[in-house]
Amino acid sequence: QVQLVESGGGLVQAGGSLRLSCETSGRTFRSAALGWFRQAPGKEREFVAAIKWSGDFTYYAESVKGRFTISRDNAKNTVYLQMNSLKPEDTAGYYCAANGGGAIGVRPYEYPYWGQGTQVTVSS
Fold this sequence. Notes:
7-stranded mixed sheet; mainly beta; 4-stranded antiparallel sheet
């Protein structure tokens, strides 16, 4: 089993920055992908960014490309999401997810392991 715990959410003004962390524990898959998704009230959960646990491959949603950066620290078993130039439309619950290996996916059903989420609110 894989456990994921997010932290780092909060309230920030538009244009500001936040860094989310996702600490992983339990069984880990060296070939897994770690992803960040977000869900605003009344909307479907959407892909934000993902990174392979090994190698340098990353992938971003168009809406965050150039503003968000995903990275990992293998020694700390932690994945980060640096969010800059935040906009009110970035307001959502942010969730960390892991798959069991294979390619990066952009659909929630491709990730069997999920954290409980952390709230990000961007005021205008």
